[in-house]
Amino acid sequence: MAKVPVKKLDFLNLAPYVRYVQVYNSNEEYKVPPRVIYDHEIVFMLSGKFVHYLDGIRYEQQAGDVFFLRPHVKHSTNIIKGENISYYAVHFDLEYMGEQLDFSAIDVYANVDYQHIDYVPIEEELSERPVIELSEVMFPSLIQAREPLLYIQAFREMHDIFNEKLFGYHLFLRAHLLRILGYMVRDVTTPYGVRKEFSHRTEITEAIQYMYEHYKEELDFNNIPQAKYLSPNYFRSLFKEATGKTPLELLTFLRIEQAKSLMQEGKHSVGDICYSVGYQDIHYFSKLFKKMEGMSPKHYIDSLNVLKS
């Protein structure tokens, strides 16, 4: 299989397309032989235990666990014998790719006799389907749900909507999937967006907090207290790995968000806002603002005034 293109998508542009939702409940023999899927899948375990093998790594999923599968990754699944198996699953793309790249999950996944084959043949026409990944978080394959009831409620409602297929149902499917993805983000990251299992979680979290408290200042990232005992390149690498942003990108984000808050107050000039969030050059500030928000500070303020009138 040729290497497929990968597109990164941030939270602001996330608009998932739900392809298929199912609930499974049985005490019969169950297996998924080696295969790949062509979209993302989330499996939420209600009862029983699964043993997944993903790229040769063994994962044991039990009730309350979330299993996250990416496209084009070889995997297989078996049950622990004697277990009653019950789970929800959803197949989806992180954005709609268009009719030409869409496919039927019933034909590709559901109508396969997994119990009587040793492997699932590759669907050649789907083998080079593009991959879309989130830029701001990398989900681990196995996640322990902090509040399983929230997942169960979202999956139950999503499953009902998928079966009824009333007018506008794709909007509601998207809304419920966004809820589930939000729960997953919360379960795997700190409030500052650092992965909870990250080995330098404490140092990076403290560095982010320092940036929140000192964003107005001219920061030298090499002199942030938490970075003093790390080489500059290593600190930047750790920071990027943990947050998906470089220190400068996060600082810029914090400053622009604060600038927007000040603009919403309606009593500050662009120049005053520029200086109050840490920039000395109003032209540079305006350029950054337009790059991030798609409009100049003046046009942003004008748009707020229109909404208020």
What is the straight-line distance between the termini? Answer: 57 Å
Report the C-alpha radius of gyration, rounded.
Answer: 23 Å
Number of strands: 11
Mind telling me the CATH class of the largest domain? Answer: Mainly Beta
Describe the structure.
- The chain has 309 residues and is of the alpha+beta class.
- The protein folds into two domains: 6-188, Jelly Rolls; 201-308, Arc Repressor Mutant, subunit A.
- It contains nine helices and eleven strands.
- The longest helix has 20 residues, at 169-188.
- Residues 205-303 form the HTH araC/xylS-type domain.
Descriptive labels:
alpha+beta; Jelly Rolls; Arc Repressor Mutant, subunit A; 2 domains; globular; transcription; DNA-binding transcription factor activity; HTH-like
List the helices and strands and how they pair.
Layout: E1 6-9, E2 17-26, E3 31-35, E4 40-47, E5 49-54, E6 57-62, E7 65-69, E8 75-79, E9 85-93, H1 105-110, E10 131-134, E11 142-144, H2 148-164, H3 169-188, H4 201-214, H5 232-243, H6 247-265, H7 270-276, H8 282-293, H9 297-308
Parallel strand pairs: 1-10
Antiparallel strand pairs: 2-9, 3-8, 4-7, 4-9, 5-6, 5-8, 7-11
Helix pairs in contact: 2-3
